[in-house]
Amino acid sequence: MAERSSPRVPLIAGALALLVYALAFASPYGLRVLTVAGVYALATFGFQIVFGLGGALSLAQGAFCGVGAYVTGILGSRYGLGFEATFPLSMLVPLLLALPVGLAVLRLESHYFALATLGIAQVLHLLAVNLPDLTGGSNGLAGVPAVVLFGWVVPRGLPMAGLVWGLVALGGLIGWRLARGRLGRSLTMLRDDPLAAGTLGLDVGRLRLTAFGISALFAGAAGALAVHTQRVVSPEVLEFPVMVSILTIAIVGGRGRMAGAVLGAVLLLHLPEWFRFLERGYLVVYGVALLATVVLAPDGLTGLLDRIAVCLFGRRQRTPVETREPPLPLDLPDGMTVEGLRKSFGGVLAVDDVSLDLRPGTITGLIGPNGSGKSTVINLLSGLERPDAGRVQLGGREVTGARADRLARAGLARSFQAAALPAGAGVLEAVAAARLAFDPDAKTAEAHAGWALGRLGIGELAAHSCDGLPAALRRRVELARALVRRPVVLLLDEPAAGLTDGEKADLAALLRDLAGEGMAILLVEHDMGFLLPLAGRVLCLDRGRVIYDGPAGGVRHDPVVAAAYLGRVASA
């Protein structure tokens, strides 16, 4: 397969095109529009972190931009502070505002979070209007000084455009490194599957708060530059149209991409100027152009350019990564002990007084009819649900009700009934996501992921996409995500579902090897021919209660189990 041209080529070409336009063709008004486009690109960088990568629709990004603008406006026009003081403070104040706000609203999901952040933006707008002694009220503040660098007053026009776009280049580089690094990959995992992210050891709350804070830093910097460009600040910088513009830039340019923020900002700010000759009809054409972009390029313009490049040059071949075995835990816990686990959903008692003991080197089976509570038990043990009663110990430590990410970092791993692999991600990236909470950087995580894939005999899949993988390979990839963390307790929810007899035999051999290395395995399975030869002990649930707890060889002969479960399977 041919290697695609480096993404640096179009970036360099685009930067040169902007430079030539600014130096040779732009009028003073054109330079002003280009400067404002740079301001919006800088604000969108932060939005690409919190929304594009993290999936949190924050409608406060425009408000944070306005806060940064007011900090510069107030300190510059009323107290005479220079750019060296106002610019960092314009970033710091939105960050200090975002942290407590984030702690309060980031627990909300989906549209509730969006509405909460919109409410914050409206409160800030009301404060700006109703505190005239501080903000100038509806009239705002005039007389904001120009930027002064090392004693040189930066005039409007080309020098100011150069300063703004120099900071855009720096901000874009920082955003790009964050997006490609551990933080960006963790946020993408959180966006695609928040439940799986927790079970991989990722602290969901801390990740969201970090992204929210970073978005505020970028927004504050953009607000400061906007005020120095316009030399006046008013409540308009806090109004909703600013947020709509940032959101539109991110969607049109390409969600989660720093280059998309630049491309979207340049187009969004210049399209109205290009269509201005249509007079009253230009808004209609402008709207149609944006709608066509969204429909024809759902991944944004940068995504469209990527697809065109693949069609012309083929996909870029991935450089093989150096594989490295992840370290074993320094102190191996003594498995997991569960006593009297109970969980109700409304009036339904899903799990009732379940106790089990998962010892190192053993495989324990968990069986029962559909709806008997097997998956609920695994969800309780892995931290996705909190028990109403009971006690759970991992390695002798009390972990009852602990969060999923804390249990994962303590040595617990699990799989899901349907292999939870992120759509559109590569196999290597999907497995490496399980090491992001443990390794210092993404490169180390990929090296450990390569080891896990090789350990499972699927190392050749590293460069493939998770999309379209057959059931057996998806199961192996998900098992690699569990294995790469070197867990001491492994919870598997129907891992043999959809596999052929040969694939089941391979899986059984692998599980025996893992148990032989000291891992404690809990195996939920319907296929008795697969489970019973593996398990030394079997528990059978019915309506949330344990009706059998004993050797695997005796479960077929137990009349209660036969009546509740095995008899039905046999008749089927």
From TrEMBL:
The chain crosses the membrane at residues 50-75, 87-106, 112-129, 136-154, 160-179, 209-228, 240-269, 281-298. The keyword Glycoprotein does not apply. The keyword Cytoplasm does not apply. It comes from the Bacteria. Gene3D superfamilies: P-loop containing nucleotide triphosphate hydrolases. Pfam families: ABC_tran, BPD_transp_2. One of its GO terms (cellular component) is plasma membrane. GO terms for molecular function: ATP binding; ATP hydrolysis activity; branched-chain amino acid transmembrane transporter activity. This is ATP-binding cassette domain-containing protein.
